Fold this sequence. Notes:
The protein is mainly alpha-helical. Helices cover about 75% and strands about 0% of the residues. It has helices at about 1-15, 20-50, 55-70, 80-100, 105-125, 140-160, 165-180, 185-190, 195-200. Helix 3 (about 55-70) runs parallel beside helix 7 (about 165-180), helix 4 (about 80-100) packs antiparallel against helix 7 (about 165-180) and helix 5 (about 105-125) packs antiparallel against helix 6. The model has no long low-confidence stretch (mean pLDDT about 90).
Amino acid sequence: MIEAICNSLTKKIIESVDEVDESKADEINYGLQLLIGEVPKFFITLILAILFHMVGLTLISFLIILPYRTFSGGFHLHTHLGCIIVTNLLYIGTPYLASIINISDEVRYIAIAFTFIFSFWMINKYAPADTENVPILQKKERRKRKIWSFVIAGIELIIAIFIPYKVISNLIILGIIFQTCTLTKTAYKITKNKYGYEVYGSN
């Protein structure tokens, strides 16, 4: 349904604007699908957060995961339903797990060390992990996003060490691990994605 709406809107935009080629039309259509697809996703996430009494932790999970995801990238699902499911697993499932995990400080510090090594290794290898639909090809832009990915992950993990609230510390650890997994080649193969820079960078 969303695809049909976006196709109709794209057609109207093309008809009202001169000199729009096929590639530009595809960009417009993709942008509309992202925009229109985000609206129901937001309300579904909000409703679920209210039902599970996790509005506060869900908001914190957005503040922790979203900046890191913005710069590091990651796979995208090919259907709106899949995207809605993964989004809610990431932003509601993660804080739920963080709230029920009870580990000692020693185990938490080991987990933070592991997360630091794992995330920095994956960032160095894959970030920014782009897609075929939204490739990031300019070296300057890729370098900027990689650096910010290191910075954000590093700052958040330092916060996880010193913050007195164990649930938030757990949330940072799990959020960074889960988001970092979306960068990996294994995750891209499972979700049938391709890195945009590999597809277009060699052309």
